[in-house]
Amino acid sequence: MEAVPRMPMIWLDLKEAGEFAFNAAVKKVRPGPGQGRRGPGGGCSTLRKYLGQLHFLQSRIPMGNGQDAAVPVTWTEIFSGKAVTHEDIKYEQACVLYNLGALHSMLGAMDKRVSEECAAGAFTYLRDHFPHSYSVDMSHQILSLNINLMLGQAQECLLEKSMLDNRKSFLVARISAQVVDYYKEACRALENSETASLLGKIQKDWKKLVQMKIYYFAAVAHLHMGKQAEEQQKFGERVIYFQSALDKLNEAIKLAKGQPEAVQEALRFTMDVIGGKYNSAKKDNDFIYHEAVPALDTLQSDFSALTPCSVLSCPSEEKAKLLRDVMAKIEAKNEVLDQFMDSMQLDPDTVDNLDMYEHIPPVLMEKCAALSVRPDTVRNLVQSMQVLSGVFTDVEASLKEIRDLLEEDEAQERKLQELLGRVPPAPGSPPGLAEVSKECSKYLELHEKASFTNTELHRAMNLHLGNLRLLGGPLEQVRAALPTPSLSEDDKQVLQNLKRILAKVQEMRDQRMSLEQQLREMIQKDDITTSLVTTDRSEMKKLFEEQLKKYDQLKVYLEQNLAAQENVLKALTDANVKYAAVRKALAEVEHKWNTTVQTLVASYEAYEDLMKKSQEGKDFYTDLEGKAAKLLERARAACQASEAHRQQLLERELKKQPPPRPTAPKPPLQKKPPDEAGGPEPAELGSL
């Protein structure tokens, strides 16, 4: 790139010194909490001098753990803020060495960016030569994380210098790839649950920044690999490398949300560079060169060919390459295995759930236990519903009688109207009958609504009563009521075979993880510094090759593990085909079992609700019964008064009839048939 955009770097906090009860002279040169913060260079110099004095002191005075002159040494642990004390001068040395590395990380994060490699060296020496049990901020996991972060940032500084010096594209690409490798190792450490719990909130911020840098520097690496292809006039390769660089940069931009403006500006600058390179290369190839664009994965194996001998001669780089190659194979196999297991939907823990049918589930046992101390549960519910039914019947009878009285009164009123041929006059009619009719209608409406609720309550009671009796009975009956699968011997054999193969899959996973961890630890602990000092420069490549052979046995074991996966998955596929019918039958039984358990639990939980609603129903109908009884008395009295009123009207009507007028005697007439004489006298008039 024409200019070098900078990414922010991570720096580490300093440990704070506590008491060191040796003498005042030591305190004069021992850096305290503020030492090294006023001037970073002076702080590093002070720390180095003090560290040298501690080594001299240790060689002269027995101040180690358990020795005669050992005194308490106190430093503050970074993550918890607690004071940690050990009677060991090596603890003082370890803490000072940690602060030396942290101080170099601060220097490296500044504009000069020259101290990251020194920080990694301090942490590496601390990890490899001091106990990890002093405090959690100096544990193996935390120190390994710090080392990879510092190495990545040191390589980032080297990359920046190489680009400023206009070094060859293949070298810049290689250094960028090494940055990616270190940050990947740091990211794996950050994803460790134990490390994450120690770092707290800062773990998320670091992980987000590191993940973004992985994609960013991968984009830079592929950009310069594309430039290398351009120098070699491999125009098809140039297009795919620039395209890959663009894809990775887009991923970095997605992960950079929330990062400072300096990061966004660097990403925009890099996008302009890579986007311009890609568009130009694609256009040239489409219209001028017409070279086939190869797949990216076919070019990855040629990456090491771009590396100069001076870089290949680095032992740490060779080990990193070895680990990278092994991890690529493991990740590829793990991805296939995960996808396969997801498609099978086979959970080894629940593939056969036969054990659960042998016991009553705890949730049901809890309900049975609760009912065992309340033996009258069912009887109380039945009695409560019987009382409710009795009050309901009484209210219904009272309201029916009131309604009958009102209907009878209305019938007598209509009969009177027919006799008189007109509506009787209102004055003097008995009061209260209309009010009785109105209240009766209101009570009938309430009764009708409550009747529906009462019917639903009885239906619910009948639904749950049998389940409550079952839960309150012997446990053997409860267990017998739960569905259980019935498998043939062949079905059981199919099931056992599937479980055996699933166990084999888990064994393969565990062994793979163990071998990977062994290889990592072996590579991290391997130190050939002494051999390098005594080896002639011309023999170093041979030395590195011989040193790498010590990993061959672990590589063989890993290769065997990875090769076995295909056979294991084939056997699992065959076993799963045979398991299909058994799986369906077990799923159906499990569904019925769960439904039965849920129904029984629902019945228990419905009991309190039934009792509550039953009591509410009794209270409602008891109140309504009292009102209906009073209304019935009023209805009887009103109907009697209405009947008396009708009698008075009839008597008044009879008194109003005029006496017959006298007429002259007429000669006797011949008797006519009844139909000609106008018919007999009406019975009604006779009664009047």
From TrEMBL:
InterPro entries to which the protein is assigned, alphabetical: ALIX_V_dom, BRO1_dom, BRO1_sf
Superkingdom as given in the UniProt entry: Eukaryota
UniProt feature coiled coil, ranges: 392-422, 498-525
GO biological process annotation, one example: endocytic recycling
Database matches in Pfam families: ALIX_LYPXL_bnd, BRO1
Record field: compositional bias (Low complexity): 676-688
Entry's localization field: Cytoplasm; Endosome
CDD domains given in the database record: V_HD-PTP_like (cd09234)
One cellular component term from this protein's GO annotations in UniProt: endosome
Feature: compositional bias, Basic and acidic residues: 643-656
Protein name: PTN23 phosphatase
Biological classification of the source: Eukaryota, Metazoa, Chordata, Craniata, Vertebrata
Underlying gene: Ptpn23
